[in-house]
Design a protein that fits this description.
By secondary structure, the chain is an alpha+beta fold. The chain has one domain (5-93). The protein has four helices and three strands; from the N terminus they run αβββααα. The protein has a three-stranded antiparallel β-sheet. The longest helix has 12 residues, at 5-16. It is globular. The two termini are 21 Å apart.
């Protein structure tokens, strides 16, 4: 499968990534932030994951059930049209599991 330049960069970035940043809601680094996908407040969910695809912390619920299944939602969060199909997102999310 052929990917556009932006998706290819993300694939390389995720392959090189050694660890995933998972923070619990009581972590001071998350203070005052909102999930950019569902706009929940920090503390509404137990865990928050740094998503390399959108470059922000998102709640575990959006990470597992929303973001990896909806390329249009990812494009909206990024503010630009990068992805053209769900299979691109699913493939990227497999690196985080």
């Amino acid at each position: 499968m052929k990917y556009n330049k932006e998706v290819s960069k993300l694939i390389v970035k995720l392959k090189e990534k050694k660890e995933h940043h998972i923070l619990t809601s009581d972590n001071e680094l998350l203070e005052g932030l909102k999930c950019p996908i569902c706009e929940c407040n920090i503390g509404d969910h137990e865990k928050y994951v740094h998503c390399e695809v959108i470059g922000a912390y998102i709640c575990d619920t959006c990470c597992r059930y929303e973001l990896c299944n909806d390329y249009q939602l990812v494009n909206k969060a990024l503010g630009k049209e990068i992805f053209n199909a769900n299979n691109e997102i699913i493939m990227l999310c497999e690196y985080c599991d």
